[in-house]
Amino acid sequence: RRQQEVDDKLGLNSFLLQPIQRLPRYKLLLAEINKEILKQMEDTMLESVKDEIGILCKAEKRLERFIDIVNEAMSINDIQECYEGPNSVRQELMYQCLAISDLFSSPLHAPMVLILRPEQDHNPAKREPINLFSQGKFRKMFEVDVYDWDHRRRYPAKMFLFERSAIYTEKVKTHLEYRGRYDESEIGIHNENRNKVYLYARKRGIQEIEVTCSDMNEAQRLSTHVEKMMREFAVNERDRINTL
């Protein structure tokens, strides 16, 4: 009703997107500030403010990387299985709010929830719903080609890497369809080709996929992220065992 009163044709979603849409404007603002400083100040004066200029340049670069991550993370909303059964998603959120009601006085303290329901996962043990917001920080999205050895088929894919898991999806026209995931405790990687990596669960041949990247550098970036996930899990497990 309020939307009709203020003649807002775009709705609440457009309002929620405004902070994200402002990010490129901040980047342009920083770039303009740097440009004007360099244009208006004499060479003799630049030396006295070089530290400040360096800070502005670093801020611009960090904001640029942050914008890239935000844009990549937005693609998660295109995963079809994140939207199946919306009533169940709301029910899940309600249960979590009730579970913490004794600890917090306001439901605003409820954890963020984005439920992925991988009911078609080839592995029955991975068909339970998972909260993507509990997978740690979002790291990177890769657009790749995947050859699935279990199903003997190749498809264009988007792979999402979090701190504690990797999810791969098939690009199907206007949306993404979930195809599988690897937990931090099981993921393995094998490099054999300049622009290809092989991912698997625990050992070669189990849930193995061949990932073809656009070039060698992209394959290296993918390998670096996966190896970091494996390394961090090993360190955390070692610390956990030492405390037993």
Tally of helical runs: 6
Widest sheet: strand ordering: 6-5-4-3-9-8-7
Main structural class: alpha+beta
How much is the radius of gyration in Å? 22 Å
Beta content = 15-25%
Mean pLDDT: 80
Percentage of residues in helical conformation: 40-55%
Order of helices and strands: HHHHHEEEEEEEEEH
CATH topology value of the largest domain: PH-domain like
Q: Say which CATH homologous superfamily of the largest domain is assigned.
A: Pleckstrin-homology domain (PH domain)/Phosphotyrosine-binding domain (PTB)
Give the tally of structural domains: 2
Number of strands: 9
User: What would you call the quaternary organization?
Assistant: single chain
Pfam families: RhoGEF
GO cellular component, one term: cytoplasm
GO molecular function: guanyl-nucleotide exchange factor activity
Protein name: DH domain-containing protein
Describe the model.
- Helix content is 42%, strand content 24%.
- With 244 residues, it is an alpha+beta fold.
- The protein folds into two domains: 1-76; 89-242, Pleckstrin-homology domain (PH domain)/Phosphotyrosine-binding domain (PTB) (PH-domain like), CATH 2.30.29.
- The strands form two sheets. The protein has a seven-stranded antiparallel β-sheet with strand order 6-5-4-3-9-8-7.
- α2 (12-40) runs antiparallel to α4.
- Mean pLDDT is 80; it is low at 84-110.
- InterPro entries: DBL_dom_sf (IPR035899), DH_dom (IPR000219), RhoGEF_Guanine_NuclExch_SF (IPR051336).
Describe the secondary-structure layout.
Elements: H1 2-5, H2 12-40, H3 43-46, H4 50-74, H5 86-99, E1 115-116, E2 130-131, E3 138-148, E4 153-162, E5 165-172, E6 175-183, E7 187-193, E8 196-201, E9 209-212, H6 216-242
Antiparallel strand pairs: 1-2, 3-4, 3-9, 4-5, 5-6, 7-8, 8-9
Helix pairs in contact: 2-4
